[in-house]
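[recover] target loaded
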């Protein structure tokens, strides 16, 4: 994510920074829905399957504004952030976040995720995603504790952080979900395509580092090798406890010093990320077993998954006086619980989206009610919208990602329609999603170029086409 948020007071043109290529409002499109997508000749990567999907969806979405938003948002990752090459005869893909020229393991997975169902029908797209798996493997082998990388040795604005920085690192914030997202991409690429080419000895080495790192951060014997400090005016950008985080009592959970928002945790046992790790360990074990690779490593991964899952149930569930048993956001093992939710994914409400819990899990159902209530300090209601925010963008800023996460995990058609209408009414005439916007004024937003949430919006609309196609005709 971005180091700190520059709030943008904007009219319709503010969201067009990524398409500042000579397009005018009059050039194609209508005055109400101008062409803001990057011109074909200037796109980073082209996919016939993506273009066919856009054409199909424009014929199915009744509302012209939503169809326009889909056309802009769904291809935003390949249009603007993908750098695809060949390195030593292997595909190599580097994916920047948008307005930051670095690749996050988490964001890069999420950015290409909605394209995975298209891989069988588009060989170049498949090779591009395989290249990203190769690049993520390389990154993990450089440093499994880092969250964001450069495509080459480069001076980072964070090079003076008090941690073991290296020339390829943009930032070194330890976040469980960074590794889990890399697993998510590898596993589902394999399940969809059957291709095992990316899963070579270097990948197996990375799997071993994932296991080693997560076991180190259970901190059963010591605090482990990772620590972090930063000279900053923002408390969420550095770490207490001499760089190791606030004290914890080991109990089988994995410490995550930072959240998916790149904010420091208060209590290092971050429950949504621990549950995400559980499914990731099992996916890796399945891959290793199916490929006849390293049965010892597979066994250790399954054992760790069971241990962490058990620890979540024993230490990560809080008996709330109003909502009953709910998942805490963070705990410390001493009996302290942080009760909130964050729009970043994984958060509590988005856990079923990542297959970390089931939609009908009674504890999740209670947790969802809590997260979408005024008992959650980061659920904001205003004149423009209501929804989840994050300490990352301070108070009263609603995240489109949180609105999408609510819709994509909902089984209530009325709720889904309401969330999509919120997205339609708060993009501030730009045609793109943003990181956050003021609850009373969508023109006050952060990040005009944020590819993850753009493609996530596209994923939501495709999910409706597959599961609830009639809604595409009802939302306007």
């Amino acid at each position: 994510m971005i180091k700190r948020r520059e709030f943008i007071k904007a009219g319709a043109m503010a969201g067009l920074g990524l398409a500042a290529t000579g397009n005018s409002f009059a050039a194609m499109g209508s005055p109400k829905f101008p062409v803001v997508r990057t011109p074909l000749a200037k796109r980073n990567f082209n996919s016939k399957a993506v273009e066919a999907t856009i054409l199909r969806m424009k014929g199915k979405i009744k509302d012209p504004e939503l169809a326009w938003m889909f056309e802009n948002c769904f291809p935003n990752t390949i249009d603007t952030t993908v750098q695809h090459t060949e390195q030593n005869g292997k595909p190599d893909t580097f994916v920047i976040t948008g307005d930051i020229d670095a690749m996050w393991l988490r964001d890069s997975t999420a950015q290409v995720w909605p394209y995975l169902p298209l891989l069988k029908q588009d060989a170049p797209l498949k090779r591009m995603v395989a290249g990203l798996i190769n690049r993520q493997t390389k990154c993990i082998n450089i440093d499994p504790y880092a969250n964001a990388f450069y495509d080459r040795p480069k001076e980072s604005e964070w090079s003076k952080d008090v941690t073991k920085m290296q020339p390829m690192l943009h930032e070194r914030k330890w976040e469980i979900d960074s590794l889990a997202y890399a697993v998510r991409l590898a596993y589902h690429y394999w399940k969809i395509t059957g291709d095992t080419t990316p899963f070579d000895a270097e990948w197996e080495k990375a799997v071993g580092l994932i296991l080693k790192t997560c076991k180190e951060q259970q901190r059963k014997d010591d605090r482990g090798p990772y620590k972090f400090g930063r000279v900053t005016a923002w408390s969420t950008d550095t770490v207490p406890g001499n760089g190791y985080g606030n004290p914890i009592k080991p109990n089988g959970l994995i410490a995550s010093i930072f959240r998916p928002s790149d904010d420091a945790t208060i209590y290092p046992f971050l429950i949504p990320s621990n549950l995400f790790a559980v499914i990731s360990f099992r996916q890796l074990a399945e891959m290793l077993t199916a490929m006849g690779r390293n049965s010892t490593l597979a066994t250790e991964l399954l054992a760790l998954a069971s241990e962490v899952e058990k620890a979540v149930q024993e230490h990560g569930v809080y008996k709330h006086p109003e909502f009953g048993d709910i998942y805490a956001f963070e705990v410390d093992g001493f009996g302290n619980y942080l009760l909130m939710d964050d729009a970043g994914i994984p958060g509590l409400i988005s856990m079923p989206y990542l297959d970390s819990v089931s939609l009908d899990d009674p504890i999740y159902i209670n947790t969802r009610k809590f997260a979408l209530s005024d008992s959650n300090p980061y659920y904001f209601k205003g004149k423009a919208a209501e929804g989840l925010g994050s300490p990352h963008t301070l108070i009263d800023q609603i995240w489109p990602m949180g609105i999408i996460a609510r819709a994509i995990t909902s089984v209530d058609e009325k709720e889904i329609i309401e969330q999509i209408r919120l997205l339609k009414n708060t993009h501030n005439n730009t045609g793109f999603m943003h990181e956050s916007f003021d609850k009373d004024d969508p023109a006050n937003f952060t990040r005009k170029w944020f590819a993850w949430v753009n493609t996530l919006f596209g994923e939501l609309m495709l999910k409706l086409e597959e599961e609830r196609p009639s809604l595409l005709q009802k939302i306007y």
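[recover] notes: The domain at 7-23+33-474 is CATH 1.50.10.10 (Glycosyltransferase).
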